[in-house]
Amino acid sequence: MSEMGEIVELxxxxxxxxxxxxxxxxxxxxxxLSFLGPVSATPPAVASSVPSFPAFDPTSELWKxxxxxxxxxxxxxxxxxxxxxxxxxxxxxxxxxxxxxxxxEPMENQxxxxxxxxxxxxxxxxxxxxxxxxxxxxxxxxxRQEAATCDFASIKDPQDExxxxxxxxxxxxxxxxxxxxxxxxxxxxxxxxxxxxVETEDAAHVAKETVYGTKTKMVFKTDEERLTNAKRQxxxxxxxxxYCSGMLEEKEIDGEYWPNxxxxxxxxxxxxEPIIQILSLNGVQIEFELDTGxxxxxxSYDVWTRLEKPKLKKPHSRxxxxxxxxxxxxxxxxxxxxxxxxxxxxxxxxxxxxQFNVLGRRxxxxxxxxxxxxLNGESASVGNVHAIRPHDEPNIALQRACKExxxxxxxxxxxxxxxxxxxxxxxxxxxxxxxxxxxxxxVPYAIQEELNQAxxxxxxxxxxxxxxxxxxxxxxxxxxxxxxxxxxxxTLRVCGDYSVxxxxxxxxxxxxxxxxxxxxxxxSGGYYFTKIDLADAYTQIKLAPVSQRRLALSTHRxxxxxxxxxxxISSAPGYFQKIMEQLTSDLRGVAVYLDDxxxxxxxxxxxxxxxQALFQRLSEKGLRCKLEKCSFAQPSVEYLGHVLxxxxxxxxxxxxxxxxxxxxxxxxxxxxxxGSVQFYSxxxxxxxxxxxxxxxLTRKDVPWAWTAKEQASFQALKDSLCTDAVLAHFDxxxxxxxxxxxxxxxxxxxxxxxxxxxSERPTANASKTxxxxxxxYSQVEKEALAVIFALKKFHQFLYGRHFIxxxxxxxxxxxFGPTKGTPALAANRLARWALVLNQYDYSIEYxxxxxxxxxxxxxxxxxxxxxxxxxxKRRLM
Length: 877
Description:
The protein is α+β, with helices and mostly antiparallel strands. It contains 29 helices and 30 strands. It is an enzyme of class 2 (transferase). Residues 857-877 are annotated as: Disordered.
């Protein structure tokens, strides 16, 4: 029997007891009324002329209705109030001295007591089933009678009422139900009901921990185990202490024998640290707590979702804690547990409890897990499965060890510019490449001094070398850049505009980027993660003499040879990736994707060893790192759209923009959302059925009303957009693109793959609401901001490879075209953003707004603010 069925059964039994009491009271009243006959104070003439009125029957009629009929009867027969006598239930008052009004209040209190509307509606929706042999008319009459006490006419907010009732009917905690039933209907909204439930359950947990002093270990037992143990305890008590037999009480519940003992409180256990096991289920790394007191396995709803929601079956058993609380089981699923030597099927009982992942003794035995070794603090290994201590929080000791390691390599963190030793990079140009010299651009007087200081600093560091003559010359665009997040002072950054004359003549270095799966395999299940930041990464790569002249800058101070690899060269990412792979290929626990270097290990000792090997290699090669931008021993890190942790690999924030999308507030925004869904219609089965409530709402003859039905359709469509049927996995071998759009309230972007047949599937989504300042931008600036937002969000996917930039704003095609160059007279903000695009290899594509609905919906229904991007934009500007 389900939990709700058990609650309904309890209510039914309680009502049967009440009916028996009412029947006994009715018999007493009839006995008293029969006794009243000879004592009647009504004159014989009146008594003979007034027809008889039936006695009140509590089993067939409500007191309120009976009393209304009685007053109508008395008025119709002209019976004076002083002559209408009644029998009061509470002697010793003389019944001849009581009038009809005297008895009204006590009778109403007895047979029509104050009813709590919340409880009445709970009973109405929980216990309304047709009885065996009951006719349709009888069922309808019973429904009307039950509805009379529910006061449905007073409902002001149908949606909130539906949510509240559904929530209360789903509650199985008796204490929570009692607390909810005490609240007046007007004071109990859905949110208030949730708050009361949370407070009541929290108070119960705190009370248990306060009373018993230590934490209660939740050892769950099946019905069979519980019954066997109970019988053994009863038999033991009767044999050992026969005089204690009175303490035992036997019952028949659901056809099974259960002994009830006097409560002695929860069983006490030492509050020791749990034993944690990492297990690979269906290819996903999941953390379990080893529990030899539990026979079966349990997992949380979140873990079931991470396993892509395998099919659930009806649970085989019921489970109870040491405190006799029944554990709610959503269902049982089968998954495959992979070890080094075999593939084992494992059953998981899915529970709604968060972070409740328990590995029972059966699976512990089947996998040969050495629990004793784990208790002694050792690492128990089963193939590729390792028992470790939990570490969801940063490991302070490991962080301290990593930072102490930095002190052993002082040269690695020096502020001056590094340079890769014994290496010069030759940039490949096309055979028909011709020298092009562009005259220097005019520098405003206001920034000439700052620009001269930037040139002097670069020449001193060896980034540029002044020369008098050169065949090549690229114009300069100065960009203001913040020194750090906590500093408001800005400085000028000198950038060459290579987009027009240099990049078209380059032979693109198509070095294959590593697949995400390859990088995940190196780091998955690692013991914390350290991220290393190279200071001005590209600038540490020295150019060959010929390349220095071809990439020279044309400035107001003359020609400056570019001695280091600059930003803005379209082939630079490919060269840099190849160099870093050659540099770190033999290092364990190190993964490199462009300028992101991640380090991990199977344990703390190995983590430090791998980090030391990386530091040693970088220091020997003359490279420099930026200590303040490095992060050490983090429990998780987002990498290429995935979250890496000791749990394994999980989806990152690539679907947050869709899942956090708020409901549309008008027809225009609803049409935009439906357009984005229709964009991927070929991947969503039964789309017309799912979208029907929303489609109907867009009709002119249908008034706007967003109810629970529309919300359910909206949520179902959002879930469909995030399934694997629609959302593609990132594949570097496929053509990639990004769609960007802006509205008055937000900006949105969709990263997608375009396939040979021309179809597109998204791989990630992103959106943000505009700040007050951004809402005052012109439309072209908003559209340009959406492009910059997309590049920053999807930098790891786009940088170093060719991609398609899709926009529905035609001026951007001219402004940001890769062969157009940075406009000299464009707004300062747009000029800086154009320089950002120069670092990427892309082609721009215009698409009509009607065909651009995937990004359009994200911009009109943005998820939330993005403080990280806003801060980065401020520093760029």
